[in-house]
Structures are given as structure tokens and as C-alpha cells.
């Protein structure tokens, strides 16, 4: 019998995050949820990543209420979220008690599957989130932050997958956030992981460089069980490949999917005018749908390329672009080959830019890079050379324990700081993650004289 391939639909999280900076309000989602529930998806990725931040910062929407409403309307499909390990949905490490409370509340408010990853693939940074997800009955999917470098070989990722199985994952995801996983590597990587690990394997890529459908096909041929796609109006470019197109192609090749193509088509028709509205409002920049093979040539994520170019252009230094691009791999090697994923992509990019602008390597170093070298983000994939370390932090000590072991519990402090407006643990968690935005959101909700308006500025897209 032909193999069945399962689909995770990303339109409500990564699809809209990659194309419209996560600005889709719940009112655009609710009318189609029943159809999405019945369309035969394995899961719907609906929460986490930037959705939480965008809800309070730009949409004046309670992210917890969004989750509860989605859960109320989805009875069959599993609801999935993305979580950055000990960073939760932010950019720094939180103490264990905050991580535990956040995961418990995510599950009790409706999440089934939590995809957990660490930017450095330091599994110590996943420990608390993995344990808590399992404790509260969630499906714990651990994602490999896929990247390319001399160090990140197929064998390295296979060894990492074995460790992931050992620490209790229910499934594994190869998370290619930059769209740099090529079809041949996908085939080799998926085959070898399937040979060594008995967990279901999901593949996540982005269409940025124009090869994503080929990558999925080879991954499926090699034994991948689940793939991530976005319904066509929110597919392509920096988003995922289109659900309908990939499903039709796979069905033609004899694979089974559980998708009801009539329902999937209805979903595409529903989101089509919504996509048009975002395009007319200017939130959907046509550029994000462009194909960008440079990301394969420079091995730098598309979002990082455009961020660097805009930073340089702002300072009238766009002629330094090529020079900065050449500096990126050198900085990355100096720093022990961190995967170029948020926040490390921004940090490495900024350091490369500073090296070029100042004309001297590590003359100027941002605080985040110093903290990284101090070990506060976790263990770099490769040890940082002594001379580089000395240049960046002098003789300061480097920590070798799990970074969160150094953090005191903080839930009580957060609860105390926001007691004027918080009515629930969910409110306190909102404040713990995004203090100023949450204070403004909760202030507007609880006090009719609270006069900080909802933010209207546009932000750059961060995948
Ligand atoms: Co993604």
C-alpha cells in the first residue's frame, strides 16, 4: 500500500508570519475554522512564534483568547505551536518556573503539539520545556535547527536526532527556517534519521530559494511522514510551498493524503480576498514572494540578507553589501558556527557589519555577542578559539552549566509587578514575555483612561 503523507497547515502561524508580519486578526480566521478542522490536516500551526507578540503589540488582541477561540472551533485537527525552548516566544532565557507555567497554560488553553527548538541545538536549553510538555500531556516535537556549515554535516544531525529521541521527544522535525535544505541533502538526511530513529519525522522548509517542492518530494521519497505547507494565497516566497499543489503532486505519484481537496480548495478561496486585502494595504510586500537563490549561494537566510541591506542603506553604505556578506561566514566560524536563526542571525549579521564599518575585527562588539561568548545562550556547536574569546570578552569567565540554572524563579515577581492589571496567570505570563506591550494591552483592557494607543508602525519581517 502506498504511504500516507500527513500535512501541517501553516497559514495561521508561519505562513502569515513570513508574508504579512503576523498581522492576521482572529476575525479573519474564525469563519473558516470549521472547514479547516474537517479538511483532513494532521495539524494546524496556529500559535507561538511571533503570533503572541503581534496580537498584543499590533492587533490589540488577547493571544490566550485567540487560542481558546481556535480550540473551540477545532474539534478534530490538532493545534500546534512553535516554542523557542528556554526563550519561550522571546529572545532571552526565562527561569524554569516561567517556562513551566507558560507551557502548562498553552496546553490547558488548547495546544496539542508543541514544536520546541533551540537556536544552538543545545539540548540542555530544551530540558524544562520537554519535561513540562510531557507532564501536561502535550505532544512534544523537538525540532533540529537546520543549517549548513563545515560542522553541520548529515552525520552530526543524525547523532543529534538520536539524542532527541533519548530525551523523550514524541516526534522530530527538521526545521529549515532559511530554506537552505537542498533536495539531495534532504534525501540523505531523512533516510539516515529514519534508519536510526523510530519517531515520526516532519520536514519544515521555506520556499525562499525556489527549491522547496523538490526538497519535500525527496524528503517524502526518503521516508518523511509529515510536511509543512501553507494554503496557496499565503504560500510561496518566504512562506511554505502551497498545500494544494504539493498534495496534488504527491497524490499523482501514488501517495495517500488525508486531505479532502474540496475543502482545501474552499479554504484557498476563502483566504484569497484576505491576501488581496493585505496586498492593497501594503502589509504584503510583493518582494517577499520573490525567489531568492542568493540564500543558497551565500548560505545566509533571505530575511538576514534584506535586513543587512536595509541597515547598510540607512547609513548610505550599500556599496559595502558584498563585503559584509563575505564577512558573515568568517564571523560565524569565529563564533563556533551558530545556526543562522533568530536571534543569532541578527547578532552575527550585526557583528559582520560592525567589523566591516569599523575596519577592524571585533573592535566594536554588541552586548548580545559578548553574552553569547560568555556562554549565556548555551554551548556553541564548536568551541570558540581562545584568541577570539580574548578579543571579545578579555579574561572574563565562560559559564559551562545550563544557562537557566543561573536564573532565580520569577513568576511571583512578575505577578507582583503587574498586579494592578493582571487577572490570571495567563495575564502574568503575557507580562513576563513582553513587559511593556503587555502592560499597555492589559492597561487598555482594565482601565478606560489608559491612553497608550495600539502600535501602528511596520516592522521588518522576521521568520
Ligand atoms: Co518556518
Provide the helix percentage.
40-55%
Q: What characteristic shape results from the CA principal axes? A: globular
Largest sheet strand order: 1-2-3-4-5-6-7-8
Q: Number of helix segments?
A: 20
Strand content: 5-15%
CATH domain fold name of the largest domain: TIM Barrel
Q: Whole-Å distance between the termini? A: 37 Å
Element pattern in H and E: EHHEHHEHEHEHEHEHEHHHHHHHHHHH
Secondary-structure content class: alpha/beta
Unique ligands:
cobalt (II) ion
The CATH homology group name of the largest domain: Aldolase class I
- Care to count the β-strands? 8
Question: What this model shows, in words?
Answer:
The structure is a single chain. Helices cover 48% and strands 9% of the residues. It has 463 residues and is of the alpha/beta class. The chain has three domains: 6-286, TIM Barrel; 300-405, Conserved carboxylase domain (Cyclin A, domain 1), CATH 1.10.472; 411-463, no CATH class. It has an eight-stranded parallel β-barrel, surrounded by six helices. Strand 6, helix 8 (183-196) and strand 7 (201-204) form a beta-alpha-beta unit. Helix 13 (302-314) runs parallel beside helix 15, helix 14 crosses helix 15 and helix 19 crosses helix 20. The radius of gyration is 22 Å and the shape is globular. Residues 14, 177, 204, 206, 463 line the site of cobalt (II) ion.
Amino acid at each position: 500500500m502506498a504511504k500516507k503523507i500527513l500535512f501541517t497547515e501553516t497559514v495561521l502561524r508561519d505562513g502569515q508570519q513570513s508574508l504579512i508580519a503576523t498581522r492576521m486578526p482572529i476575525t479573519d480566521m474564525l469563519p473558516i475554522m470549521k472547514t479547516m478542522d474537517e479538511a483532513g490536516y494532521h495539524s494546524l500551526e496556529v500559535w507561538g512564534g511571533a503570533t503572541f507578540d503581534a496580537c498584543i503589540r499590533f492587533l490589540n488582541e488577547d493571544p490566550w483568547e485567540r487560542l481558546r477561540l481556535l480550540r473551540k472551533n477545532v474539534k478534530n485537527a490538532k493545534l500546534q505551536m512553535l516554542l523557542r525552548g528556554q526563550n519561550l516566544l522571546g529572545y532571552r532565557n526565562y527561569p524554569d518556573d516561567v517556562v513551566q507555567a507558560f507551557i502548562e497554560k498553552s496546553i490547558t488553553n488548547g495546544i496539542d503539539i508543541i514544536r520546541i527548538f533551540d537556536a544552538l541545538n543545545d539540548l540542555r536549553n530544551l530540558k524544562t520545556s520537554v519535561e513540562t510538555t510531557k507532564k501536561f500531556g502535550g505532544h512534544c516535537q523537538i525540532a533540529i535547527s537546520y543549517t549548513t556549515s563545515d560542522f553541520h554535516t548529515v552525520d552530526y544531525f543524525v547523532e543529534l536526532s538520536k539524542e532527541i529521541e533519548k530525551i523523550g521527544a514524541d516526534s522530530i522535525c527538521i526545521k529549515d527556517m532559511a530554506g537552505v535544505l537542498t533536495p539531495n541533502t534532504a534525501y540523505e538526511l531523512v533516510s539516515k534519521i529514519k534508519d536510526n530513529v523510530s519517531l515520526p519525522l516532519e520536514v519544515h522548509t521555506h520556499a525562499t530559494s525556489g527549491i522547496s517542492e523538490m526538497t519535500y518530494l525527496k524528503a517524502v521519497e526518503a521516508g518523511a511522514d509529515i510536511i509543512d505547507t501553507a494554503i496557496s494565497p499565503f504560500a510561496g516566497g518566504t512562506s511554505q510551498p502551497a498545500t494544494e499543489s504539493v498534495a496534488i503532486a504527491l497524490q499523482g505519484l501514488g501517495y495517500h493524503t488525508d486531505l479532502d481537496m474540496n475543502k482545501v480548495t474552499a479554504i484557498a478561496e476563502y483566504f484569497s480576498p484576505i491576501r488581496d486585502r493585505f496586498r492593497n494595504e501594503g502589509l504584503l510586500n510583493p518582494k517577499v514572494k520573490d525567489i531568492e537563490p542568493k540564500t543558497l549561494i551565500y548560505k545566509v537566510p533571505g530575511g538576514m540578507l534584506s535586513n543587512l541591506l536595509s541597515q547598510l542603506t540607512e547609513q548610505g553604505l550599500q556599496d559595502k553589501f558584498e563585503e559584509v556578506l563575505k564577512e558573515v561566514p568568517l564571523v560565524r566560524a569565529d563564533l563556533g558556527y551558530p545556526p543562522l536563526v533568530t536571534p543569532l542571525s541578527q547578532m552575527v549579521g550585526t557583528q559582520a557589519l560592525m567589523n566591516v564599518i569599523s575596519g577592524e575585527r571585533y573592535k566594536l562588539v554588541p552586548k548580545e555577542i559578548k553574552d553569547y561568548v560568555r556562554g549565556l545562550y548555551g554551548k556553541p556547536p564548536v568551541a570558540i578559539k581562545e584568541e577570539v574569546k580574548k578579543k571579545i570578552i578579555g579574561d572574563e569567565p565562560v559559564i559551562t552549566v545550563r544557562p537557566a540554572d543561573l536564573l532565580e524563579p520569577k513568576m511571583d515577581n512578575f505577578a507582583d509587578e503587574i498586579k494592578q492589571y493582571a487577572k490570571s496567570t495567563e495575564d502574568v505570563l503575557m507580562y513576563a514575555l513582553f513587559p511593556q506591550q503587555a502592560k499597555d494591552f492589559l492597561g487598555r483592557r482594565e482601565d478606560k483612561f489608559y491612553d497608550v494607543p495600539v502600535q501602528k508602525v511596520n516592522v521588518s519581517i522576521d521568520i
